[in-house]
Write a structure and sequence with these properties.
Layout (H helix, E strand, L loop, with lengths): L1 E7 L9 H6 L2 E7 L12 H10 L1 H15 L7 H22 L12 H9 L3 E6 L2 E6 L6 H12 L6
Antiparallel strand pairs: 1-2, 3-4
Helix pairs in contact: 3-4
Length: about 160
């Protein structure tokens, strides 16, 4: 077993430990069970570190899952937990789907809390008329353009070329 230490500048707003406050650097440790005699690119320290950093996407998905309800089970009964987990995973999948074809810019990378506030809980009504559906937003809603653009992308016919 090998332990790797990585020193990096903290991002703005990072919460540093007392140890890290001393010199202003953030330290990360990760452990691997690859033997030191591993041949080729897989045994190189830089490649092992890069493989570990790719794992951050998995941690983002876990954090998103906790924000959509996986971290708060409402009951001790197995069937209730099973139904809750199904609903939470469905919510996480729908948010991932919403990001891919519909959202752009900052909203495509936003956390579920931000998406909930800016897009999903928009102060709007869906109005039907003239064989079309339209959104009627409140006059002072700041994310009207982004939400309307996302709706238009969802409703657009697929590009078959």
């Amino acid at each position: 077993m090998r332990i790797f230490a990585r020193r990096e500048r903290p991002h703005p707003g990072a919460k540093l430990s007392l140890f890290e406050h001393e010199d202003g650097w953030r330290y990360q440790l990760h452990v691997t069970n690859l033997p030191a005699t591993t041949k080729g690119w897989r045994g190189k320290t830089a490649c092992i570190d890069a493989a570990h950093r790719v794992h951050a996407r998995v941690e983002d998905a876990i954090r998103t899952g906790k924000d959509t309800g996986i971290g708060r089970f409402p009951s001790r009964a197995f069937t209730a937990k099973q139904a809750w987990l199904t609903a939470a995973m469905t919510g996480q999948i729908l948010l991932a789907w919403l990001r891919l074809p519909a959202l752009d810019g900052d909203l495509a990378k936003a956390e579920p809390t931000t998406l909930r506030y800016r897009v999903l809980h928009a102060a709007a009504r869906l109005v039907r008329g003239g064989r079309r559906k339209r959104w009627k937003f409140a006059a002072n809603w700041p994310w009207t353009a982004a939400t309307t653009r996302a709706w238009q992308r969802i409703c657009a016919p697929p590009d078959t070329t």
